[in-house]
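can u do me a favor
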């Protein structure tokens, strides 16, 4: 199966891990990414996306005879649908369902052969039939490790509690001010210092060291789909204290010690309990449900349904086509 991937971020680790797992199953990929500068606090301009249109149409018409187009993120869905002969799978990442991109995602989703979201919450917000497949976690890369060795690798001292915030403070959706506030409260309660460690822009190969060096992961986001950081922490048996967003409550069901809360008081109490206990969690067992191998098998089934769908010459809403075959 030959797939053309469209994305706003060709370096997204979770997307590339999924593609690598699908390649092991016989899928080949070519990737087109929207040009333009992007970073924390900055985004691409509408002109960047307009320039992407002819690139996609040209590749779809003149390049490899692709079996399908996989559009990652709602903003590239219109480009995927601009060509009429190749089935489209649309994967939504979270902010394209909860944020200002939502109208684009909702308008395009009915015209795609298959739509994939990361959580039941996203499916409910999107309001249409779609497949729920969380991004998978690489259980070989993310595994429990010796905390002392990990702290030496990342340069953290051994005399403090270290709480991991694996995002840039400049990403508004991650709500760094709330994380800082929670840790400040907890630092005033416990005798040992409590330090909030913000980590971003590091090589993804080193992220397991930061996970294993931490006493807990703190998630305070305004919204999420299925946050990879939570699943990666679970795979390393690192306790998680998180707000109730995306599929976090579902993922952490039965994981101990960990806490899901909605208030600052609940988050602070949960973090105090985790740090006082000083134990690793049993999260790895739960993380097996969303291993990269499991989710790749589910995505391959989506690809096979999309390719098996009747080819059409004019885009029509999915609800006007025959019902999809249920997932096996």
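np, heres the sequence
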């Amino acid at each position: 199966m030959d797939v053309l991937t469209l994305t706003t971020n060709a370096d997204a680790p979770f997307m590339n891990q999924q593609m690598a797992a699908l390649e092991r199953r016989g899928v080949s990929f070519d990737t087109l990414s929207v040009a333009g500068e992007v970073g924390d606090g900055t985004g691409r301009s509408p002109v960047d996306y307009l320039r992407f249109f002819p690139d996609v149409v040209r590749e779809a018409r003149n390049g490899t005879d692709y079996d399908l187009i996989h559009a990652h993120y709602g903003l590239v869905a219109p480009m995927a649908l601009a060509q009429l002969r190749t089935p489209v799978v649309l994967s939504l990442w979270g902010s394209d369902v909860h944020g200002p991109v939502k109208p684009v995602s909702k308008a395009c989703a009915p015209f795609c052969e298959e739509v994939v979201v990361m959580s039941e919450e996203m499916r409910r917000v999107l309001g249409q039939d779609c497949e729920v497949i969380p991004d998978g976690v690489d259980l070989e890369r993310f595994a429990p490790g010796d905390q002392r060795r990990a702290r030496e690798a990342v340069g953290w001292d051994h005399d403090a509690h270290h709480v991991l915030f694996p995002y840039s403070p400049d990403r508004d959706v991650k709500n760094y001010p709330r994380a800082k506030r929670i840790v400040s409260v907890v630092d005033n309660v416990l005798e040992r210092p409590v330090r909030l460690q913000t980590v971003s822009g590091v090589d993804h190969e080193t992220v397991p060291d930061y996970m294993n060096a931490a006493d807990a992961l703190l998630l305070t986001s305004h919204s999420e789909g299925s946050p990879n950081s939570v699943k990666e922490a679970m795979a390393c048996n690192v306790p998680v204290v998180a707000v109730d967003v995306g599929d976090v409550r579902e993922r952490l069901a039965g994981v101990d010690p960990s806490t899901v809360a909605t208030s600052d008081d609940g988050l602070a109490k949960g973090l105090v309990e985790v740090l006082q206990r000083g134990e690793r969690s049993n999260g790895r067992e739960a993380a097996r449900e969303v291993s990269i191998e499991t989710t790749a098998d589910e995505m391959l089934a989506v690809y096979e349904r999309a390719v098996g769908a009747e080819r059409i010459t004019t885009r029509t809403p999915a609800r006007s086509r025959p019902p999809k075959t249920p997932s096996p």
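Residues 106 and 127 are 8 Å apart (CA to CA). hope that helps!!
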